Amino acid sequence: xxxxxxxxxxxxxxxxxxxxxxxxxxxxxxxxxxxxxxxxxxxxxxxxxxxxxxxxxxxxxxxxxxxxxxxxxxxxxxxxxxxxxxxxxxxxxxxxxxxxxxxxxxxxxxxxxxxxxxxxxxxxxxxxxxxxxxxxxxxxxxxxxxxxxxxxxxxxxxxxxxxxxxxxxxxxxxxxxxxxxxxxxxxxxxxxxxxxxxxxxxxxxxxxxxxxxxxxxxxxxxxxxxxxxxxxxxxxxxxxxxxxxxxxxxxxxxxxxxxxxxxxxxxxxxxxxxxxxxxxxxxxxxxxxxxxxxxxxxxxxxxx
Length: 304
Description:
Helix content: 40-55%
Strand order of the largest sheet: 4-10-9-8-5-6-7-11
Distance between the termini: 53 Å
Order of helices and strands: HEHHEEHEHEEHEEEEHEHHHH
Domain HTH luxR-type: 238-300
Protein name: HTH luxR-type domain-containing protein
Number of domains: 3
InterPro entries: Sig_transdc_resp-reg_C-effctor, TrmB-like, Tscrpt_reg_LuxR_C, Tscrpt_reg_TrmB_N, WH-like_DNA-bd_sf, WH_DNA-bd_sf
Radius of gyration: 22 Å
């Protein structure tokens, strides 16, 4: 019998009551298996599996390597902060969308604080122009600049962990010679130059340029929050314990791919992936693959 159920506290951050119930069960019993959680909650295993996927996507839990799969809860303070940041990012995107619609409706994008730029070639050109015009500072969220960093200009970049899977993007970040940090699920693609010009990509072929405004101020505050949450990524070469194959495997795992998906990508057996992952975790003194990815990145061990 499970007659008592504590009142939900995470609904305001987009976590449903059942997800929160399972998260609380995991907090009380870290390293639980699916079957163990099914016994605790009284749910069918399929229902537990469904909500575990939700917890993983929300960043409220992580899966440890090996079989049977075990799940570890995220530290509540860090997890709630990340959920709050995502909510703030969603609000910023909604406000931006309303502003863009207003600008298009008034047909005044050239004279107002917003300019809509369309087309991949025009967007790449505008990124390059903005970077060349920078005088003191460029901040970036999950956007790879097309040109090398300018001398005398301070660069700060926050990239999504998925960047580790793409050698070309990682090479571009390294070539820029910038101060880079990594974060899972970066919510926006943004470049702000000298705190006066913002370039926000809202689609594959749509870029919104922002001038000085309360919206740009809000985006800068969001960047600072994400910068504080992100983990530094070093690019210094290293003779670390990871082979090129290990680096590729760890990059795929840190980006969220399952052992089965990694095995298909690399053309090896799933047991081979699990065995190599255990060796990597031991070499990096890490308990989860996400932690291993961050530590490898900090040490410059993820060179393609």
